[in-house]
Amino acid sequence: MNIFLFIRQTIGILKVLIGGHIYGQRRKKNIT
Questions:
Q1: Range of 3's domain?
Q2: What parts of the sequence cross the membrane (predicted)?
């Protein structure tokens, strides 16, 4: 397994999770 591919995948997943969390918080504020 290529370590660089693994690191890039992990960073990508973290970005999606963090981005989704921030997006969810914004939606909650707008709805409330």
A1: 1-32
A2: 6-24
